Amino acid sequence: MDLKYVQTTCPYCGTGCSFNLVVKDGKVVGTAPYHRSPVNEGKVCPKGTYAHEFINSPDRLTKPLIKKDGKFVEASWEEAIKLIADKFKSYKPDECAVLSSARVSNEENYAMMKFARGVLKTRHIDHCARLCHASTVAGLANIFGSGAMTNSIPDIAESKCVFVIGSNTFENHPLIGRQIMKAKSNGAKVVYVDPRKTPTGKQADLFLQFYSGTDVCLLNGMMQEIIKNGWENKEFIEKRCNGFDELKKEVMKDDYSLENVSSVTGVPVDDIKTAAEWFSKSGASTILYSMGITQHTTGVDNVKSVGNIQMLTGNLGRPGTGVNALRGQNNVQGACDMGALPVVFTGYQKVIDEAAHKKFADAWKFPDGIAEGKNGYEVTVMMDVLTDKPGELKCMYIMGENPMISDPDLTHVEHALKSLEFLVVQDIFMNETGVLADVVLPSCCYAEKDGTQTSTERRVQMWRKAQDPPGEAKLDWVIISEIAKAMGYGEQFAWKSAEEIFTEMAALTPSYAGMDYVRLNRPEALHWPCPTKEHPGTPILHIEKFGMPDGKGLMTAIPFKYQQERPDAEYPILLTTGRCIWHWHTGTMTRRSESLEREEPTGWIEMHPEDAKALGVKNNEMVKAISRRGEITIKARITDTIKKGVMFIPFHFVECAANMLTINALDPIAKIPESKACAIKVEKIQEA
Ligand SMILES: Nc1nc2c(c(=O)[nH]1)N[C@H]1C(S)=C(S)[C@@H](COP(=O)(O)OP(=O)(O)OC[C@H]3O[C@@H](n4cnc5c(=O)[nH]c(N)nc54)[C@H](O)[C@@H]3O)O[C@H]1N2
Ligand SMILES: Nc1nc2c(c(=O)[nH]1)N[C@H]1C(S)=C(S)[C@@H](COP(=O)(O)OP(=O)(O)OC[C@H]3O[C@@H](n4cnc5c(=O)[nH]c(N)nc54)[C@H](O)[C@@H]3O)O[C@H]1N2
Ligand code: SF4
Ligand SMILES: [Mo]
């Protein structure tokens, strides 16, 4: 049999595993291990194993669709592009907004960023990083001068104490979970902090089960215990940090005594003590965190708190240490690096910085200039503007995002998107957002593209084309370029390959400047920053100094604040939301993957046996979950792995969408929604 193997990078999570796509008669038919990647050494999780199954699904979009009299009709590319170009030209710059995508390549995000700022001339561009690690980007930039994971994935195995807080690593970054197990077999202690005893928690030496939203209180309590015992790293603090006195003043308050922290968080006093001791005395402690930390109205506070404890104990800039924010989507790091954000161009060059603005305007040569040098709206703010300030935003171009399932408070999102005059959705499948669009454009998936993506550890790796796209689907960057050409900007979008886009981008982006397709085309690829062609890349950040003006990390006093909506008599249960190993976000890909869908064919609500008993609910019984925003009917899953008083819903399933219930309350700085804590009530469904 004539089989071809094409090495590529996994399209799901930010771990960035490599595998081969197996191609037969021009079609992808399977995956096979690729052993030379240092990230996963030939192993993959179930999503990687079955990453071929959705590619040739009969549901793939194959033709442009235009809505006529409320119904989608197939159209030619010429007709669709002309309609979009004419419509886009009819709006003023700030009436348009763009959502780019953490699912597509760096090159495609760069193309979209250039399109937004150069063609539409709008400031309003953002993407799902807003719902995810916006707090990390803002929080870490504020204290370290750079908002990314500090160490590399293989480095985690070197740690002597792995402290996992708000990350279900084994289910959501399984091949990073493998490094935790390596550290453990080398003698490291694993501490797990979560409201749920997840598969990750089951491997821990110490499990701190606490109430959602009480992270700062717990971390401040641990820091008080460390300082009281003199376990802080005085030399590191003295040489490399500012702000210790302010931090100390806050954490030494009586609010953070072991007893008080225990009563707020629900964690026994002795466990907090043990965690503080193991953590500060191990010699090399690493923190892994993800959505449990970031998705709060106090997301930035939570991130800074994690930074505080690492500076206090001197666990930065060495192997086995670090603040390791596990980025979620395959290319969310890259989409941020490419400037698919309302405040920066590529490489975090600020749009309000006149020199940066001039640099991009000069390089791009749009005869009529680019978007003004002012910050734009975040995704979550766009939705609020649409509902609260009618007429301000009129038109939206969404590539590879599905806010009709992923944004908080879906009734609000639906209202917002329906108030648009013109919506274009570009996707590989018809999703819940596409249904509301005026035009839907079919694009290529990862298996049909060349390009690069940047994983959570800042490793820039390649996608390699394995098959032709279905029907008339086109590459995302080609579609963007064709619209630009139809609007009169052919010269600025004259690229013939993804590589040409990369070359243009790297020349404008200091942290990528030393990279090219030849250097990236090897198993270990390159970590940014990589400023010159001779530079070997940078697996560990902040070795000698931080990226702050004086080179010092900034410790900050973070007072504990509760989440926006706390349980009360009417809505007595604390709801938290998240993921499971088998499914991916809004399910467009994994629910079309037979092997994955078979494992978990629908959603559920996890509840403690005592809560279930009080409601009179049995396992697998359908119940109503109700918040101040909406209600859903969903299957109860009774388990003693969840904290009493807290319930959990995975947000993948449209038929029982968690985001019907969640609250659209935002962190004041990062504008990330509080997806991890709101109040609900649960009702037994009375038989008729
Ligand atoms: N299988 C799978 N893997 C994925 C994804 C997927 O959809 N499916 N998505 C990817 C993406 S984009 C992301 S961002 C990552 C997310 O990866 P994770 O952050 O690991 O995912 P979540 O399940 O959202 O949340 C993690 C944990 O936070 C806990 N938690 C809830 N409330 C709190 C709290 O207040 N504090 C703390 N400390 N913990 C709390 C939850 O119980 C949960 O176990 O996963 C990536 N990987
Ligand atoms: N309640 C709750 N809500 C959450 C979260 C939570 O923990 N709880 N987590 C949040 C987080 S961290 C995230 S990252 C978001 C994710 O939210 P989204 O990004 O909206 O979710 P995805 O399902 O990944 O949607 C991506 C879309 O891209 C499409 N796509 C895939 N590949 C390509 C491609 O190559 N080209 C194009 N054009 N399209 C493509 C897919 O079909 C899909 O429609 O959800 C957020 N929402
Ligand atoms: S761990 Fe992430 S990158 Fe690796 S195979 Fe699984 S989903 Fe893909
Ligand atoms: Mo995410």
Automatic annotation (TrEMBL):
CDD domains: MopB_CT_Formate-Dh_H, MopB_Formate-Dh-H. Residues 3-59 form the 4Fe-4S Mo/W bis-MGD-type domain. GO terms for molecular function: 4 iron, 4 sulfur cluster binding; formate dehydrogenase (NAD+) activity; metal ion binding; molybdopterin cofactor binding; NADH dehydrogenase activity. Its cofactor is [4Fe-4S] cluster; Mo-bis(molybdopterin guanine dinucleotide). GO terms for biological process: formate metabolic process; respiratory electron transport chain. Keywords: 4Fe-4S, Iron, Iron-sulfur, Metal-binding, Molybdenum, Oxidoreductase. PROSITE patterns: 4FE4S_MOW_BIS_MGD, MOLYBDOPTERIN_PROK_1. Pfam families: Molybdop_Fe4S4, Molybdopterin, Molydop_binding. One of its GO terms (cellular component) is membrane. InterPro entries: Asp_de-COase-like_dom_sf, CT_Formate-Dh_H, Formate_Dh-H_N, Formate_DH_asu, MoPterin_dinucl-bd_dom, Mopterin_OxRdtase, Mopterin_OxRdtase_4Fe-4S_dom, MopterinOxRdtase_cofactor_BS. The keyword Transcription does not apply. NCBIfam families: Fdh-alpha (TIGR01591). Belongs to the prokaryotic molybdopterin-containing oxidoreductase family. This is Formate dehydrogenase subunit alpha.
